[in-house]
Amino acid sequence: MTEFFESELLPKIYGFCRLKMNTAEDAEDLSQEICLEVLKVIHAGKPVANWNAFLWSVSNHMFYNWMRRKKHGTTAYMADCTASFSDVEAEYISAEEKALLHRELSMMSGNYRKAVILHYFENKSCEEIGAVLGKSAGTVKWWLHDARKVLEKGMQTMRDYGEKSYRPGTLQLSCQGTPGENYEPMRCAERKSAQNILLAAYKQPLTIQELCIELGIAAPYVEDEVNFLLQNQLMRETAKGKYQTDFVILPGANAAMGNKIYAAAFPEYFEKLIAFLEENKTLLTSQKYNIAEFSWGRLLWVYVHIFTDLAIGKFKYENGIHVKFRDMPMRPNGGRWIALGFEGDLACGEKQAFKNYHGYDGPVHKTEQAFAQGFFHAWSGLDSSVFFDTPDAVLALCRDMIKGNADIQTLGEEQKYLFSIALEKKLFVKADGGFRANYYYVNRSERQGIERLADTFYATAAPFFQTAYDLVLEEYADSVPKHLRWQMGNFLSNHLNMFVTCSLYEAVNRGILSAPDENNKAWLSLFASE
After folding, report:
1. Distance CA 205, CA 246 (A)
2. I want to staple 246 with a disulfide (CB 3.0 to 4.6 A). Which of 22, 236, 237, 369 is the partner?
3. Which residues of 272-285 are buried (b: 16+ CB within 10 A; e: fewer)?
């Protein structure tokens, strides 16, 4: 009990005293008196069913006793009071009870809160309240009866607000499949309140009141967020009044996991990859595979990325992905997806130790008007917004210009505008009195040739991916709630994307890749095709 007293009760007692007193000295004096009373109960071995309620009762009792002892003259915490002490005490107690009532009402959910406010604050009868809320007078009476019991119990409790009330977490959303018309699910949890509701209700279902206590937010605002998340299918109602997050949430970064994968599988994989690319260098540097006439070091920015990613994609499909696109749920605002959350900050700005190997976004794709895939790495200072902020029509125009289907001299007004964006984004740059493409592009037949070539590399790569994937499953499987395990393979297999990042970073360190500069760093790993 000594450890329980020091770790659980003592911080609450001192916090209560600091809230009541204006000076640290008075707070310490009062806290000592409260601690003494609490320790008497502990040492006597008396059973306490609810420590929060007990602590609240003792703390208030000792506080009022402390006030009575100081009633002669003014005090440090009531220097401006001129009324008699009994008036001050009564006024304080009345204000305190009102504050507690407001606190408990703020955490009371739905119709219970509405019924109490309409009855006690607006003096409406049960019949009138029933008419407003669309329920019978008997139902309203039942709500009021239950609400009074909840309020009475809550007002006698020292509330222990959750960690997210003072240290909110950060949740970043992604998805597999096709996003909705309003870019769901990514835009469904942009607010801190929504993010922390989803984080709080991930491991187990919570009621509105439990969410209020955890976040320190009043029920009307929590209800609004929960309803929005339910509508967008990011939460589910598991039982009457209990809600749980309905997608997988993983840590944003796990350096220990990355180190395990690196040590067990990566070094030998990298040697096999580079050897394979060198064996096929003649083909991969030929004109049809190198339209922009890049150097081998510049081409490897793409080939290291694309061959690894294609092999990983095949492995995920055959061994890692449990939910195929055809089986993903259709969503209310269009799209077909399953969401993925990352808790914490995904960014990796530090260039030290293993953090250098942690990818920022992984491969991202655009396929509406032009097939394009990019990999954006933390050490370049970029994220995938540079890719997604580039309109598809710009990539389509760039494709037509590379293929000779559009000429800079005959562009229409809209095309000139799109090309100005391409220049601004450095997809094209000035060269030799004209313009040249600044990213890797191949025609469809050559893209299919690269895909076939990647298939021949797959047999070499797959054992390394399997070793890494087994480590990932062992690390995370127990932390994913049971109702989400049907989809966890889709996201746990994403840890394999670090093979791309590690390969690029290792190639940079070995001087195999060309040096990035301001003109090309955004698109070094962009792979585009028809």
Report:
1. 10
2. 236
3. ebbebbeebeeebe
CA gap 29, 10 in Å, rounded: 14
Determine the average pLDDT of the residues in 171-191: 90
Between CA 487 and CA 501 the distance in angstroms is: 24
Structural tokens at position 312: 């990983």
Q: How far is CA 202 from CA 163, 213, 222, 248, 250, in A?
A: 15, 16, 16, 8, 11
Tell the residue number behind the tokens 């370049």, with chain if given: 380
Residue 255: per-residue pLDDT: 64
Q: How far apart are CA 480 and CA 504, in angstroms?
A: 31
Delineate the domains of the chain, giving CATH numbers in brackets. Answer: 2-108+148-155 (no CATH), 164-247 (1.10.10.10), 254-327+348-529 (no CATH)
Whole-model pTM: value is 0.61
3-state secondary structure (DSSP) of residue 72 = coil
Nearest CA-CA partner of 481 in 185, 236, 190, 221: 236
Task: Report whether 521 contacts 380 (CB < 8 A).
Answer: yes
Distance CA 357, CA 359 (A): 6
- SS3 string of 143-154? HHHHHHHHHHHH
Q: Tens digit of pLDDT for each residue in 225-281? A: 999 999 999 999 998 889 999 999 987 666 667 677 778 888 899 999 999 999 999
Give the pairing of strands 371-376 and 242-245. Answer: unpaired
Alpha-carbon gap, residue 33 to 2, rounded angstroms: 17
The crossing angle, in degrees rounded to 10, of helices 498-509 and 296-315 is 160
CA dist., res. 314 & res. 317, Å (int): 5
∠ at Cα 146 (229, 91), nearest 5°?
100
Contact 296, 283 (CB under 8 A): no
Alpha helices by DSSP H, 356-391:
385-388
| Residues 498, 358 contacting (CB under 8 angstroms) | yes
Cα(501)–Cα(329) distance, integer angstroms: 31
Which one, of 242, 143, 235, 161, lies nearest residue 194 by Cα? 235
Query: Predicted confidence band at 387 (pLDDT cuts at 50, 70, 90)?
Result: confident
Task: Give backbone dihedrals phi and psi of 10, rounded to 5 degrees, phi first.
Answer: -60, -45
| Cis status, amide bond into 481, omega within 30 of 0 | no
- Three-class SS of residue 366? strand
Residue 355: per-residue pLDDT? 42
What separation in angstroms does the CA of 387 have from each of 380, 400, 427, 498?
Answer: 14, 19, 11, 20
How many alpha carbons lie under 13 Å from residue 17 in its C-beta half-sphere?
24
Q: If residue 442 lies in a helix (H) or strand (E), which one and from where to where?
A: strand 440-442
